[in-house]
Design goal:
The structure is a homodimer of 437-residue chains.
Chain A lengths: L4 E4 L6 H4 L8 H17 L1 H12 L10 H10 L2 H20 L6 E5 L2 E9 L2 E5 L8 H13 L4 E5 L10 H9 L4 E3 L3 H10 L9 E3 L4 H11 L4 E2 L7 E7 L4 H12 L6 E7 L2 H20 L4 H8 L3 E5 L2 H11 L3 E5 L4 H7 L6 E4 L5 H6 L25 E9 L1 H17 L3 H11 L4
Parallel strand pairs in A: 1-11, 4-5, 4-7, 5-6, 7-8, 9-10, 9-12, 10-11, 12-13
Antiparallel strand pairs in A: 2-3, 3-14
């Protein structure tokens, strides 16, 4: 049986169909989300308790996680997981600290001083989805850059379990990031609460974090009203570029680890080879998929995800580069050869994050190498970067002109203002220079 | 007569009402815009010719500006305006060149190399509005950072005049920025053409530029579908912070130059003073407004804009800072004193661009000092920066792990993957290390 649909040296006109994502139609959820947003805006906290009853099946006594829950979490997390979280924290912190920007300063002409001032966003909201597994890694990925950027106020929302609790590993990871304002609110209602504010939850300036299609739609709707978001999100995806020398078991494991994220995840494989050898190589990858699937839990889930996967054999490296840049993958794994990997990477213009060489598996970046795992999906890598320290900062331009600086510039300003027919702009310069034009 | 509504030392609970913007309800235009977007997506070029007939009253023979029009423009622009454009170009280029980022590199642990690669967005679309005056300054503000960032493909859309022409100063400014792909398309249909692509206009990755409420709504709608935008836009605004020592004629000229941008523009004045002296100072500003208005064209237009303006006297500098940060002005002019101006600026966390001291009028930044005039409005300065070279670049993270690097990290990865119940993530590490766990 073949898991991956195959093609060879596709023409440009085939790219669109071949590189299509598994996207569900989101229009269906738009109205549901609109109703939730409106309810939270109009009713505030009481709607949050109601939605928690409805969606989380939880009867909450308080929205906020209290100090006792926070301190209990510390004793409930295994020592080995604590150690792992600390290692991940250290790497993520170190890389995001390297990203701290420094404002430029320039005297562009005598008496005209320009600069940029880097300022943290004052209040940020982090959303951590619920579901089968506690996504403590996402807490680190969103919380650490907020800490590095020195955002003065950080709030975290995540849905409660039926018993009204939050997984201790989530709380422990939050504590590592100095986050103590945590609310038991999930779904579109969490986005609404952080975007509009309620009696308990003060509105934030920007919302970060992944989520299901309701959360995503809520983020998109609120981003056009009053609150910025990190990026539009879609299902996760990987593109693996392999040569005949790449170990098929490594390639298969990468496709499967992507497929594990969700049934709408997409795993794409590009093999650099002629057709005959390339298809023979794909047979070996298929055998490895078969073998590894046997040893993995949730096989039926993984099979469902793999259904959207594709394998393309391309006989030239420039075609492989074209395919990568046309797809714009969230994760790109390059496994060609020691010599070719970095050269290939240097030609990539559309990707969220690049993993170079046989030992750079996506899991490393997902958890603990130090790069951020919140990345643009669904082709947004054409225009968006992944979350970084930059995402938590603004740059404010500053200018200071001396009288001499303004005088020297006045001829230019008068001419441009007159030509754009903006005479009050002209006047603002003229009154300052009196008769000195 | 008083142009500015006055208040003194407002309480926190009054801020929302006092600092309210003059925003029109955009919901009315949403459906009109949706129809235009759909028409362009479904019909392509033919809808653009039709909309040009309908909205611009122009019968176009071709959407693209041809080489002859470009070369004619050169001879139609005054020598003095050319000189002004060159000066503005030089300053804007110099400041935006300072903003070029440099990717970080870090070996976060032995065998774990992390970096960021800075890559220009491959195809960007610039929108230049039509209207009474040719906004050639905006061409420079959007075109120069694209040039600095080395975006390989840049397209400009702007509505034609009734005779099908584009103002030569627009074309000349575009030429300075090496932009030759220019289309005679305006309004929401221009945003749709750049976002979806048509037979003639290839889709872009990100759209920049100001516009009326149709353009703004089109940008918002398309940004949730397929194409990034610079930022949500609203009416322009200024906040002037003045002490009793600030020349009232300067202050009045700043309020008027802001009022000139549109009838929904907002000019806000904060005076640092006690009530009695502060209100007396406001009287002097009012006299100056009266006087300067007499000498300006479009007085009735300016009066309409000033109707949304307000003046607040605050007796403490911390209150002045609070008011600024609560409003988050697009433009902030600080005119307190030589000693206090920079200290005050250092406490500002929400603003688009700051103008320090008596000779830094907004006109300077609007045209030619070198800072960008495309700035966040309507409170978006809480989370957005103005357009800069950064806006035209992406940062792609890259990681390279050696076998040793992965081995050292494996304990952490195994533990986190198990705890998040993602066993294929676990497996991707395990297969690479064979029996070496």
């Amino acid at each position: 049986m073949a898991y991956l649909k195959r093609s060879f040296n596709p023409g440009r006109q085939e790219y669109q169909e071949l590189l299509k994502r598994n996207i569900q139609n989101k229009r269906e959820v738009a109205q549901d989300v609109r109703n939730i947003l409106d309810a939270v805006r109009n009713e505030g906290d009481s709607s949050l308790f109601r939605f928690s009853r409805q969606f989380d099946k939880a009867e909450l006594s308080s929205l906020a996680v209290n100090l006792q829950e926070l301190s209990e979490a510390e004793s409930l997390v295994d020592a080995s997981l604590k150690q792992a979280l600390h290692t991940a924290y250290d790497h993520i912190y170190a890389f995001h600290a390297e990203q701290i920007g420094h404002g430029e300063q320039l005297e562009v002409a005598k008496g005209i001083e320009l600069s940029r001032m880097i300022v943290p966003i004052q209040r940020v909201g982090l959303y951590i989805p619920g579901g089968t597994a506690p996504l403590f890694s996402t807490v680190l990925m969103l919380g650490i850059p907020a800490l590095v950027a020195k955002c003065p106020s950080v709030v975290l929302c995540t849905p409660p379990a039926k018993d009204g609790s939050i997984h201790p590993a989530i709380l422990y990871a939050a504590k590592l990031c100095n986050i103590t304002e945590i609310y038991k609110v999930g779904g579109a209602q969490a986005i609404a609460a952080m975007g509009y504010g309620t009696q308990t939850i003060k509105a934030v300036d920007k919302i970060f974090g992944p989520g299901n299609q309701y959360v995503t739609e809520a983020k998109i709707q609120i981003s056009s009203e009053c609150c910025a978001i990190d990026m539009p999100a879609g299902p996760s995806e990987v593109m693996v570029v392999a040569s005949m020398d790449a170990d098929p078991s490594f390639v298969a494991s990468d496709l499967l680890s992507q497929a594990e994220h969700g049934t709408d995840s997409q795993a794409m494989l590009i093999v650099h080879s002629d057709q005959e050898q390339g298809f023979a190589y794909l047979d070996r990858v298929e055998q490895e998929l078969e073998k590894q699937l046997e040893n993995l839990p949730r096989k039926s889930f993984l099979l469902q995800s793999l259904a959207g996967s594709r394998a393309i054999v391309a006989s030239s490296l420039p075609t492989c580069v074209q395919l990568v840049n046309a797809y714009g993958p969230e994760h790109l794994i390059i496994n060609l050869s020691e010599e070719e990997d970095e050269l290939f990477a240097s030609k990539v213009v559309n990707a969220g994050s690049i993993f170079i060489g046989p030992y750079s598996c996506e899991s490393a970046g997902d958890y603990a190498s130090g790069t951020n795992h919140t990345l643009p999906t669904n082709g947004w890598a054409r225009s968006y970067s992944g979350v970084s320290t930059d995402s938590y900062c603004k740059k404010i331009t500053v200018q200071k002109l001396s009288k001499e600086g303004l005088k020297n510039l006045s001829g230019t300003l008068f001419c441009m203002a007159e030509s754009e027919a903006l005479m009050a702009h002209y006047n603002a310069v003229a009154v300052r220079l009196g008769g000195e034009r």
